[in-house]
Amino acid sequence: MVHVGRQPIYDRDGAVIAHELLFRAGATASTASRRDAHATARVLVAAFTEFGLAEVCGGRVCFINLTRDFLTGRLPLPFDCSQAVLEVLETTDVDEEVLAGVRALAEQGYTIALDDFVFGSSHERLLEVATYVKIDMLHADEAAVRATVVNCRLHPHLQLIAERLETPEALDLAMSLGFEFFQGHILGRPHVSSTVALAPSRLTRLRVMAALSTEDVDLDELVGLVGQDAGLSMRLLRATNAASFGLNRTVSSIRDTIVALGLTRLRQWVTLMLVADLTEADPEQLSDLLIRARCCQLLAEAGGLPGEPAYIGGLLSAVADLFDEPADRVLTGVPLDATLTEALLTGGGPLGAVLAAVRAYTAPGGGAGPRALPPAATDPAALASLYLNAVCWTNATLSDLSAELRHTGPDRVTLDG
Question: What is the DSSP string of 331-354?
Fold first, then answer.
């Protein structure tokens, strides 16, 4: 399971204008168990590639706590600058490296917020590039809060957020001092969202990183590597939304997904997934997913249809079955083209017939059923041959991965930078 917390931020009229995304180790956790690069990576991967940002934040901007590694550029931020406000934690020492990193992020268009701000700290150096200043109101001394507000108002571009509001008195004080925005338990407690997730294989991610590190990247090799891992494919499909934010771009294949992301964004997302280091998925489940996807591809090609959209369709339909989720739920945040969406949601069109045939064949007691199917789907022997071909391909793929993992060792690879 993947979990992410979110807490609403309100304006003076009581409208929700944003959510702060928070790391949560479990569905019942009320506080973050850690605030490090791993936790930030988990939040980013979950929000953008598991849930989809639209589902988590409802179309509103999100505030994300960043640690030093992200602020200085050691770890990437693979999303559009308009999609998130970057919070500098109060525990971060703003030295020359952090100052230069935050200035660079601001120049790239990212919005900066200073968390738990107090005057006299190194965070004063960031006031020139910050848009929001968050002031902790829990157990705060009223005189100190007033002094902080007065000093912040010397910088007309700053907007103030009163956070950790837990009593009516604290809220009244914040309102009287002219804060623009408000956050705290008295207004809305953090809500934890959970979803079942397929984790990409660590080895596959490392192999993708290796393929991306060459001077002349082989797109066909990349497509093959990503296609071998159901979890990685699903995450990159959803990550396409972050790469094409504001554009009406759709995809129908893994190749489309890689092109939409671009090599730079692909490197960033795969790096972030390695840092997040989510639990490995069940190998048998991954095998079933790849068999379904490959079988759909082979059946489509046998009927003169494009194979790559069928592979994606088979993968997504298998994921829906695995998690016992309706297809429309699985497709949330996945920018598929209309033909593939129709095939998955309604079973319409030639591609829908292919997906239905393979799904029926791979289910207990299945059969293709009376539909307009490619010839191979109506010939039991031909369909069985395609299925066995898909099984052999999957077994060979997973065997190669296992052999390479044994040779390399999961803990013998380091990331530079």
Answer: TTT--B-HHHHHHHHH--HHHHHH
What region does 14 belong to: left with phi over 0, alpha with psi -120 to 50, or beta?
left
pTM: 0.58
Q: Are residues 167 and 244 in the same domain?
A: no
Domain that holds residue 175: 2-195
If you ran DSSP here, which 8-state letter would residue 60 be given?
A: S
Instruction: Please indicate, yes or no, whether residues 276 and 161 belong to a single structural domain of this protein.
Output: no
Any idea what the Cα angle at residue 85 is, between residues 83 and 88, rounded to 5°? Answer: 150
DSSP string, 84-144: EEEEEPTTS---HHHHHHHHHHHHTT-EEEETT--TTSGGGGGTTT-SEEEEE-TT--HHH
Same domain, 46 and 119: yes
Is 238 in the same domain as 161? no
For 154-213, what is each residue's pLDDT tens digit?
999 999 999 999 999 999 999 999 999 999 999 988 777 655 555 556 567 757 766 775
Tokens of 278: 């989510």
